[in-house]
C-alpha cells in the first residue's frame, strides 16, 4: 500500500496579514518570509493532525481490494476515481454506484455498495488505485485552534531564524502541540 499527495493545497488556512498581526510583524518587507513559513508549517500541522487542512488530492494504491479501503487525511470531500487491473490485466474504472464512500468517519472509508462485492484483481503490486480529494472547504472552516497553532509556530520560526546557525538551538514549545489535541486523528 502506498499513499501520496498528488496535488497540494493551493491556498493556506491563515493569511499573511492575520499571521503578521498575531506575531506582531509590521514591515511589509517581511511578507514573503511569513508567507513561506506558513507554507512550511501547514504540512507539519497536517502530519501532526493526520488531517488535510486545505483541499488537496491524494492517491492510494493497494495490491488488492481489502474488505474496506481506508482514506487517511480527512475530511474527505469526494472520490475522484477508483481504478483496478482486472484478472486479465486490463485497467478498469469502477462505476461509483458499485461502492459507497463514508466521508463522515475520520478517517474515511470506501466499501462495496450493498449487495455487491469487490471485483477480482490481477495479482500484482498496486493493482488498485483510489484518487480522492480531502480538506476543509475554506480557511474559515479550519478549526481556530489549528490556525492559532500555525500562527504561533510561524512566529516562533520567524523569531528564531538564526537557529540554523552553528552552535545555536531553539527551545521546543511542547505546550503548543496541545492546541492540536482536539483535532488529531488517532490510529492509522
Question: How would you characterize the overall build of this protein?
Answer:
With 188 residues, this protein is of the alpha+beta class. The protein has 2 domains: 14-50 and 139-183, no CATH class; 56-134, no CATH class. The protein has helices at residues 16-23, 31-49, 144-159; strands spanning 2-7, 56-62, 69-71, 76-85, 91-93, 99-102, 108-112, 128-134. The strands form 2 sheets. A 5-stranded antiparallel beta sheet has the order 1-2-8-4-5, with no helix packed on it. A 3-stranded antiparallel beta sheet has the order 3-7-6, with no helix packed on it.
Spell out the blueprint of helices and strands.
Elements: E1 2-7, H1 16-23, H2 31-49, E2 56-62, E3 69-71, E4 76-85, E5 91-93, E6 99-102, E7 108-112, E8 128-134, H3 144-159
Antiparallel strand pairs: 1-2, 2-8, 3-7, 4-5, 4-8, 6-7
Helix pairs in contact: 1-2, 1-3, 2-3
Overall tally of structural domains = 2
Shape: elongated
Uncertain parts: none
Overall pLDDT level: 90
Structural class: alpha+beta
Largest beta sheet: strand ordering: 1-2-8-4-5
Q: State Rg.
A: 20 Å
How much of the residues is beta strand, in percent? 15-25%
Order of helices and strands: EHHEEEEEEEH
Largest sheet, in brief, is: 5 strands, antiparallel
